[in-house]
Structure formats: C-alpha cells, structure tokens
Specification:
Length: 172
C-alpha cells in the first residue's frame, strides 16, 4: 500500500519507509514520457514483483486523450482531405484536357502522314514514267549515233545481205 504525501494521516513508520524505498525505482507515467531520452542512457533498476510499466486500464495517457469524441492520433483533418481531393480533381481535369489536345494532334498528324504518303506514291509513279521515257530515249540515241557514225559510202551490212545471192552447196 502506497502512502500519499497529501493524506491526512501522517503515519511515516518503518513500513512507509520500505514502500518509499521500493517505489523509488518506479517513475510516473508523465515522467516517463518527459524523460524518454534520459531513460535510455540511465541504468535500469529492478522493479518489485507485481509492478508493470504499463498504465492501468482507464488511466489517462498522453496518447489516449480524448478530444471531442475522437482520439488525437496522426489523423488528417477533414479540410486537408478535401483540399487534396480538389487538387486531385484539378490535376485529373488538366491531364484529361491535355490528353484530348494530344489526341487531336495525333489525328491531325496521321492525316498529314496519309497525305504525304499519297504524294510520295504519286512521285514514285511519275519517276517510273520518267525512267521508262529515258530508257526509250537512250535506245533511240544509240541508234542515232550508229547512223551518224556510219560511213555513207559504205553500204550497210543489211543491204549487202539482201543483195547477195545465197549459195547452196552442190549435191553429190
């Protein structure tokens, strides 16, 4: 049984001294939370049997204080939650708007790409026609060069072959 120093009875006998000596190693809950840093460096003393460092049920501790029916823990205030939700909605709206703009830009670029591909195909077709015409022109120029390079006094080999009689070998 512990004596209260404020009690009206002033019985401070040998039993009270023994209880005070046994209770010297105990700290109050308020002292424990204040001296938390100092308690880790201080040597530990043995506690009397039956004592515990945990507070009794129903005892008030700083972490179990009740204010307005709610525990005062690490909870976000409602206004902060609303503010974060509004910020999320604004960011979501901005991203949606930006995605819509990018989608229209992609559609415009795809149309431009299709138009460029059709132009490219028409240019390829035109180049094939030009190559065919150049090939025809090259063959005509070669025949014209052979005509220019030919000596007019010499008969052409085609004319000689047409005028020469074909000799047949004799039959035995």
């Amino acid at each position: 049984m512990a004596l209260d120093s404020n009690s009206p009875g002033d019985d401070r006998g040998a039993a009270a001294g023994a209880e005070r000596a046994g209770g010297a190693g105990l700290k109050l809950v308020g002292e424990r939370s204040q001296n938390l840093g100092a308690a880790s460096s201080a040597p530990t003393t043995e506690r009397p049997a039956g004592t515990s460092t945990e507070p009794e049920r129903g005892a008030s501790t700083p972490s179990a204080k009740v204010s307005g029916g709610r525990k005062a823990g690490r909870r976000l205030p409602l206004w902060l939650f609303v503010l974060l939700f509004i910020a999320f909605l604004i960011a979501f709206g901005y991203q949606t708007h930006h995605a819509g703009r990018l989608e229209s830009e992609v559609a415009r670029l795809e149309a431009s790409l299709a138009q460029a591909e059709s132009r490219l195909e028409s240019h390829r077709t035109h180049l094939l026609e030009i190559r065919g015409g150049v090939h025809d022109l090259t063959t005509r120029l070669e025949s014209l060069r052979t005509l220019i390079d030919r000596d007019p006094t010499v008969e052409s080999p085609a004319d000689l072959a047409a005028e020469a009689p074909v000799e047949r070998p004799a039959e035995p």
